[in-house]
Amino acid sequence: MSIPPSTPERKREITRLQELVYELRVRDAMTTRVITVTPQTTIAEFREVLRANRISGTPVVDEGRMVGIISIEDLIKALAAGQMNATVGEKMTPRPATLYDDEPLIHAVGKFSSLGYGRFPVINRQGDLVGILVQGDIVRALLHQLEVEYHEEEIRRYRASHIFEDILADQVTLRFRYQVPGGDFERAGEASSRLKKTLSRLGIHPRIVRRVAIAAYEAEMNIVIYTDGGELIAEVDPEKVYLQAVDDGPGIPDIQKAMEPGFSTAPEWVREMGFGAGMGLPNIQDCADEMRLESTVGVGTRLEVVIYLDSGGRPCGG
Amino acid sequence: MKLREVLQLTDGKVLTRNTDLDLEVKMGCGADLMSDVLAFTHEGTLLMSGLTNPQVVRTAEMAGIQAIVFVRGKIPPPETIALAEEKGIALLASKYTMFETCGRLYKAGLPSCGLFESSLKRWREFFGEE
Question: Maximum CA pair distance of chain B?
Fold first, then answer.
């Protein structure tokens, strides 16, 4: 799928669509009622099949086995050559390219663009013809899935807001505070893990939870790696999650430099553990709707991240 | 792709107890940098990694990754396995390299995590094109 230049809103939708073509299978999109013809069918009869069913091609089946595929283009060629009494068997494309019903839809997208065919017969792993897929089916399946998810999301939001409705006040903010010990690599990540579980229990959308968790975890790792300890504080209200990562030293001398992807001052032992590659702060920024970083050398660092609950469930960096 | 097929394709072994081999993974990611795992995966990704410390499991938990394959015959320490069992994350082992493990799965139809906006942004900034 090509990506048109887009507004941020559009970008989110497209990213979700891109994900969906990986998640959905060919069988989720295909048409299962397959109209077929036999090799003995004449071109004149084939034309009638297309007209009556308002389709533009069919697989050719002989004694239960698929032997070819024939389309409206073959019909037009036969028509131009005045061969309306020829048989489908003579004009079809034998051994057509097929798709498996359990393949991810992205494979179908790839085959449509690389092979240029208008339709693919779909077979199961036993080789039986189980459906047919045209490009329009893919778009329809994606739109259908987006609609289903939209409804699920509505329900989730209702659940998320429920706790706020049950508590009687003009304004409710839930505040969760987690201590992060410095230098303790063994326990690093525990605070973010607990925060993630808590947000899930509140019924917040899993995609939002994932973004908060990733931002919190990167921030927690920074506290563990570079400081003597600090804390993570998450404040949740009906609109947003406001996350703070606070420590009291040693501070960041050059914040702009620290934000550059790939810039890192991490010691070797941290890098050996798969961290300290200079992607922590850029990752946090990708997950955040708003981010602010304040630091004074010798005093401490405060990172603030805001993630809105209605920010469309976009993935980090989406 | 089910974990059962992942095991067959990589001649792999299971490291965690109570592992659901019918668990479906949607796509794969090979990475040794934990920030890359966080930035370039989606929910339901299978992670291939050569890192075996407990932070790999923590990272997987944050990213919504339910299964990890350790490549190059690396066996994680007991604390990594214990944490994974506690978090319900499946750990598998492959004796093949990162490249071959990923290659075997990709060839069998497990897709990648696709393109990411952050990568495209860098690409456009440097090459000046879509």
Answer: 50
